[in-house]
């Protein structure tokens, strides 16, 4: 059976197809946020089989497989890679209308030129055909990036992570820019004082500093922040439930820090004050360095405590949270702006109820200092599908400037995820094409096509200021 994904996939009229073919299709990819393992890029790794590059670490697929009655042995357990892939093939037909169905077949087509539906009957043949290609030098990780016309990848690292591989990539002749993003979530995870103290001790060793006070803690973080900057980092990323903006004094934070260093349990009010102080100090560092800061807000993580205990975090047991966002976020951003240390900022939300909140919040802090200083970030996680992307476009259009949007990112751990940019571009062109044909936008393909090119690539290049290579 031939694949349903044709040249017109998601493009429902002639104008949409023209916009995609002439303005979006051939734009390079500037992937400013992902979770790809930088070691695999530096080492130009080749994967043994399709399960390794496609199923390992992909909690999107694991959730679908579990919902289809697949035992976790075939997701994260000790089943063979072929058994795991067959279990995924058995699940795929039941993902109809889930974005996984689209992404799966886009990825098979774009990387492996497989024009066949994946199911239980075709799984082993597809597995073997893809493995044959993956075992060739043409399918190394660097070549997978080249296939998709990627110009920049920005991975995500903890402040304690080594930057050696990023430095090695900077020193070699690889034409695709690979940068790191600073993810300091563990630096303020004060719910578990023992774990945080262990992390602080690691920071002290790494920076060769004694960390006996809150100011010393911030100084050690700032030193490491500077080392990230020297390694090419120009943006931070924070995965938090809400912004933290409680009032506090320096004396209060020092008292809390001393209590923390004694591994004493902090009560809720102390935790919130500490997190508020940390979030502010980290944001001030970003501003001083001229970085972009990203906030991923609203995920309710590790809901299934049994699953967390068994498998650890990021294994498919998270959901949309219903946290209050507006007041604390507004107070936090205002605190930064009032002290003249609010840098360029991207706000992402995972709860669709907060879409308008985020879109209007960015408008409060646009100051004319730069184009699109404050960004309502791309539809994220559970919203990263056709309906969610369209909703993001519509709300941003109504309440801001879609034309200044910095576009799509993969937010993925897989080297096969880059067709998500194609998916995003097709949705964008279809929306604009429909409105042109309905008389809601001018029938000026040069004007609208220029907007498409900017959203696909140009805006991100100009906004982030990270150096490209080839």
Helix-strand blueprint:
Layout: H1 14-24, E1 29-31, H2 38-42, H3 50-54, H4 59-67, H5 81-91, H6 99-112, H7 123-134, H8 141-147, E2 150-157, H9 164-171, E3 177-182, H10 193-207, H11 214-230, E4 235-240, H12 250-261, H13 268-289, E5 292-297, E6 299-300, H14 305-311, E7 319-320, H15 326-338, E8 344-349, H16 355-364, E9 374-376, H17 386-399, H18 419-437, H19 445-464
Parallel strand pairs: 1-2, 2-3, 4-5, 5-8, 8-9
Antiparallel strand pairs: 6-7
Number of helical runs? Answer: 19
Low-pLDDT ranges:
none
How many structural domains?
Answer: 2
User: What is the CATH level 1 assignment of the largest domain?
Assistant: Alpha Beta
The total of beta strands comes to 9
Structural category: alpha/beta
Span from first to last CA? Answer: 40 Å
Verbal overview:
- With 470 residues, the chain is an alpha/beta fold.
- Helices cover 49% and strands 9% of the residues.
- The strands form three sheets. A four-stranded parallel β-sheet has the order 4-5-8-9, with helices on one face. The chain has a three-stranded parallel β-sheet with strand order 1-2-3. A two-stranded antiparallel sheet has the order 6-7.
- Helix 9 links the parallel strand 2 and strand 3.
- The relative contact order is 0.14.
């Amino acid at each position: 059976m031939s694949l349903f994904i044709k040249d017109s996939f998601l493009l429902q009229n002639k104008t949409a197809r023209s916009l995609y073919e002439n303005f979006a299709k051939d734009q390079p990819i500037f992937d400013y946020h992902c979770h790809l393992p930088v070691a695999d890029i530096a080492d130009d790794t080749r994967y043994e089989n399709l399960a390794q590059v496609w199923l390992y670490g992909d909690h999107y697929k694991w959730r679908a497989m579990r919902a289809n009655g697949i035992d976790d042995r075939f997701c994260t357990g000790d089943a063979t890679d072929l058994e795991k892939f067959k279990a995924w093939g058995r699940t795929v037909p039941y993902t109809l209308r889930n974005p996984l169905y689209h992404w799966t077949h886009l990825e098979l087509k774009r990387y492996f030129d497989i024009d066949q539906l994946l199911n239980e009957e075709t799984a082993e043949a597809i597995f073997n055909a893809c493995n044959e290609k993956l075992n060739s030098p043409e399918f190394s990780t660097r070549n997978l990036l080249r296939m998709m016309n990627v110009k920049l990848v920005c991975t995500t690292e903890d402040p304690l992570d080594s930057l050696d591989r990023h430095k090695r990539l900077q020193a070699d002749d690889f034409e695709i820019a690979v940068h790191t993003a600073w993810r300091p979530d563990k630096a303020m995870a004060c719910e578990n004082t023992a774990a945080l103290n262990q992390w602080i001790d690691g920071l002290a060793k790494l920076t060769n500093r004694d960390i006996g006070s809150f100011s010393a803690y911030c100084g050690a973080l700032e030193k490491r922040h500077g080392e990230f900057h020297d390694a090419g980092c120009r943006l931070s990323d924070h995965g938090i439930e809400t912004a933290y903006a409680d009032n506090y004094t320096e004396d209060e934070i020092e008292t809390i820090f001393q209590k923390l260093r004694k591994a004493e349990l902090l009560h809720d009010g102390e935790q919130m004050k500490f997190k508020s102080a940390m979030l502010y100090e980290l944001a001030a560092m970003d501003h001083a360095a001229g970085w972009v800061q990203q906030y991923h807000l609203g995920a309710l993580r590790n809901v299934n405590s049994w699953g967390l205990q068994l498998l650890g975090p990021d294994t498919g047991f998270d959901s949309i949270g219903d946290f209050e966002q507006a007041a604390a976020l507004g107070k936090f951003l205002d605190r930064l702006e009032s002290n003249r240390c609010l840098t360029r900022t991207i706000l992402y939300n995972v709860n669709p109820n907060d879409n308008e909140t985020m879109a209007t919040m960015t408008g409060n802090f646009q100051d004319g200092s730069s184009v699109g200083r404050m960004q309502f970030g791309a539809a994220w996680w559970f919203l990263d599908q056709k309906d969610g992307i369209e909703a993001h476009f519509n709300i941003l259009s109504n309440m801001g400037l879609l034309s200044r949007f910095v576009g799509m990112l993969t937010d993925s751990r897989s080297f096969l995820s880059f067709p998500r940019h194609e998916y995003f571009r097709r949705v964008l062109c279809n929306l604009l094409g429909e409105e042109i044909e309905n008389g809601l936008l001018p029938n000026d393909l040069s004007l609208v096509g220029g907007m498409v090119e900017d959203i696909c690539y140009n805006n991100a290049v100009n906004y982030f200021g990270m150096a490209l290579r080839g």
